[in-house]
Amino acid sequence: MMAKALITWGGWVGHEPDKVAALFAGWLRDAGFAVEVTDTLACFDDPARLSDLSLIVPVWTMSEIGKEQADHVAAAVAAGVGLAGCHGGMCDSFRTNVVWQFMTGAQWVAHPGNDGVRYRVRVTSDHAVVAGMADFEVETEQYYLHVDPAVKVHAVCDFPLVAGPHAANGPVEMPVVFTKLWGEGRVYYNALGHQASVIAEGPAAEMIRRGLVWAAR
Length: 217
Known about the structure:
This protein is of the alpha/beta class. It has seven helices and eleven strands.
């Protein structure tokens, strides 16, 4: 029986959620998953449906989720369903839902310099999601996150590169890739992915592809 993945996309169109969802769907199908793609959060209404999945992949930014919908996802992940996503599509999805933020492990708060900042992503572990990968440069939004101290960090970037009030604190290593556990479920996050082109190929694509597969039950 094929492992089942559910990809749901929506919210702010500037993050190209439809294109990012299509990338994820292709990678997962190539990895042998049966993939459903939807553009509604109604897919979170049925707990039994969620419990039958191997992986949930949200691609939603700056949107609203119902309390029961978020609780259903949290319960499914706690019971072993994987959760994986990128950029604002997972860690800036629902700013008013603290259960979602607790489960996903971080919340976006700023991107100093906006789009077009050139920075280096540095690999900091030998975990399966980054093993054997070299550091690489990207030119995109650089996410400043509020991060759960329980996460395991596998790649970072350096702040500050752009002037701002945050720079008064001096050098900061900010997670770009991390994993965490939520009950029996695995959670994977990658801060890259402001637009589909940023993660469509190269090391960024490989990191996310690995993360999706690693998180799946």
